[in-house]
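Final report, closing paragraph on structural work. Over the funding period we assembled a curated collection of sequence-structure pairs, and we close with a single example.
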Amino acid sequence: MTATNSRKILRLPGVQEKSGLRRDSIYRCAREGWFPKPVKLTDRASGWFEDEIDAWLAERAEARTAGGDAA
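Its predicted structure, as stored:
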């Protein structure tokens, strides 16, 4: 796999920083289907694809500028 094909994984602190959401909200919203679901890395570790978080944020921004309700 080349660097252009690789996807960066963010761990929870990075997702919290990037999204502005707290831990409980991230997991609840992922369960409810309106936030990207985590990827299981090991038995005790999960992460999120950074490009999926970026796309989610872009959707929120687009909905805001379009006058829609992003939540």
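The radius of gyration is 13 Å. The first helix runs from residue 12 to 19. We thank the funder for supporting this effort.
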